């Protein structure tokens, strides 16, 4: 497998949750009140809980790709609650908690290396988000990633259905991102290739950059690295320690061009290459 030469690329497409934000901790923490209620799930390990949940989530994304992600999360929580209740036949589940779980995206933590790494990488590339999320939920994460609690929220020129957000065109923006695309914008949940194809099309039109100069950087092999590779887009795998979600294809032939344990390691490698070239 040939080595990545970072200066060959102009745009990085990031997955957000799993790569920049710790969605596994966010999801597992949010599931705790539900799991603790039932004997069958009270002793689940973190891995068991996350894999059970992600299978439900994936099925719902295929069935209803148009549903907003926060609502899909709430539905997945509800489906898991119903399954556990049917298995154990204990007291009724409080389904109001499902909506609370769906709204918990705003509380999902950012990996400690992320923000500093983004500030390094934005010096060398246009940074793009392509995420299985909805606009309102991502607005909270975006503020954290930008280290700007006063960040202007999404604004789209209605009624244009093809609008997309170029946050760095906002005056005084501290966003590290040149373009943000959510599943709400593309109408598809990854690994459906429509999301990536939409991103590549917009990148070509907005930045005049073809896919050969685009690098996908992500933790999930299933959602990001595998499908982008099939489209001929190079990928860097951020192999976050302890991650269990999105690794369905880990035993197949590698589709990434380079691997790092953290985004901070990748940013350091980019800086080193710049200094030595």
TrEMBL record:
ATP-binding recorded as keyword: no
Superkingdom to which the source organism belongs: Eukaryota
Pfam families: Hydrolase (PF00702)
Coiled-coil intervals, chain numbering: none
InterPro entries in the record: HAD-like_sf (IPR036412), HAD_sf (IPR023214), S-2-haloacid_dehalogenase (IPR051540)
Keyword Metal-binding: no
Molecular function terms from GO: hydrolase activity
Keywords carried by this UniProt record: Hydrolase
Protein name (record): Haloacid dehalogenase
